[in-house]
Amino acid sequence: MAKKRRVIRGMPISAGIALGRAQVILVGHLDVAEKPITASQVKAEIVALDKAVDITSTELRDLRDSASRKMSSSVSRVFDAQLLIATDQDFLKKVRIEIGVQRRNAGFVYYQMIKRTTHQLYLSNDQYMRQTAREIEAVADRILSHLSGLGEKSTALFGGDIIPVAKSLPPGEILSYRHRGAVGFLVAEGATNSHSALIARSLMLPMVVAPNLLNKVPSGCKLIIDGASGRIILNPTDQEWADYQKQRRRHGPAIISRIRKLKEFPPTTLDGRPVEIAANLEFPGPVDDILAERKVPVELYRTEFLYLDHNDVPGEIGQFKHYDRIAEKFSGTRVVFRTFDLGSDKVMGDKPAINEPNPALGWRGIRSMLELSSIFKTQVRAILRASTRRNVSILLPMISDMSEFRKARKLISQSMLELRRKGELFDEHIPIGIMIEVPSAALMAAQLVEAVDFVNIGTNDLTQYTMAADRSNSRVAGLYNAYHPSVLSLIEITVDACHFHNKPVCICGEVAGDLLSLPLFVGMGVTSLSMNPAKVFDSCRLVKKIDSQLVQHLVDPVLSSPSAASVMRKLQNYKNAIDNR
Ligand code: PEP
Ligand code: MG
Question: Is residue 339 a contact partner of residue 323, using CB atoms and an 8 Å limit?
Fold first, then answer.
């Protein structure tokens, strides 16, 4: 019987088209509902559990056999290990007993016992233990999805193109699923400027947010997601599959071929002022070559993303090789390496997140690196060693106070001294800049800017901290808006301070790639706008249509607007006028 086709409208987060099989991720993302049961229902719950275990075991056996035919023996060994976990009779016996003792549904009891086991393993410093915890979770996901009726027997869940379907996916998991064949992501919770969204866009993989989707998408079903429109198709027709397959082929190369068309770089305004349009990068990827060829600078390289799927940061040599390859590729222009901005939702590998009541206000960015100074200095030495072509800068994230900059600067000086002692070469005049992304830093820009070589304004965080609205939380997305006059005023204060001290200022949050904002930021006099590579071409085209003198008149009316909506209206009117010219 044909599976029921269904179309769901979601919120587009990252463009692109994915065709694959849904892999519903439950453990760690779903609170399996607790249901009291009567003594007479205990047996039925145990039977249901045993059946889910049976289906899972057959599935894993099939996967192991298919992996040993088509893939490496290491993949088939993973399924072998998972099979042992799924059929661990001692554990299953304890679950059966607990169902009777607790008089609770099998899913709930099983889930609680799994969580207890994996929690212990995750606390261990032993990588093998933590890997085992992950395998246990993967098995539990399968058993729970069959137990809840969401599962659909499929041997294509690994090894083929998969679309993880989860309540939410932190940045590290996006990378980890990418390595396991993910071609797109479907989440119930997420927002446009979350770090996970940035990663998906950087990987050029589609992501769509659709609340309450976990109970609508069965694991294993065929799925198409269109990250530009937010359209999700479950069990599409063959014709739809074929049509979307054709469209998918056009996405990645389209970005590259548009950048290739750039004739003049940097673009100049109608009155001849050059405006630097730069790129934000996170990983080596298919667009790097064309960006480097067109001499598009990288004003923000988010280095932490290179290692989020590692359990530990590589040492100096390992990092140096990485940064040096990037610096060499961009030798015709510049690369700004931001030191690790870890913490909050950016947790490395399978390390548990630090338990903090307000992680975004906690041990994040430069705050953690000043304490973990040996990790910081190792990274700084690696960046310094990659600076011999004199095209590299160092950028410090989340500076909220002058003392933080001074401490970081001291550690950088110590790192330089260490390299000099060893006779290692580096750029002695390497520019050192800061991210201004915390209101305190923007309000004290006059003092901070004097001490640094350049400033990058991070509007993603500046908006979240100014509006007190979590950038990853779609519930407060109505408040989270970089066009809010309060955020723009902080930007203006910072830009003015940079003009006063004659220091370059770049905007590198997501709003920099938004065409609506470009005339305003040029009017304020920012030196450069750094954005996702997909936005570079359109931004360059728009620069050529504006007059840098005229757009200065946008600034005052915008800053005195009462709301983000009114700012956006004014900017839209202006943009319509230039588009119609
Ligand atoms: C920002 O906050 O605007 C920024 C560029 O940094 P990230 O998005 O990496 O936090
Ligand atoms: Mg930031």
Answer: no
